Amino acid sequence: MKSVVPPGFEQLASTSPFHDLVGPLYEKRDDDSHRIGFVVADKHRNRRGIVHGGMICTLADFAMGHAASLA
Question: Exposure of 20 by Cβ count < 10 A (0-12 exposed, 13-18 middle, 19+ buried)?
């Protein structure tokens, strides 16, 4: 299955070896918002085929740190 990045999102440069493992991560900046996301791959899923909670926490952790670095 080919991954499709939604329009307007650009890949973020990796910030660590950990992000190389869980990424790639993408961002989209608008005048009034800034979004961080990823395309779900098999490596992000748990045994039931759902995005693993650890990946959701990783995304939240990265998004908060990224937002703080832009403030």
Answer: exposed
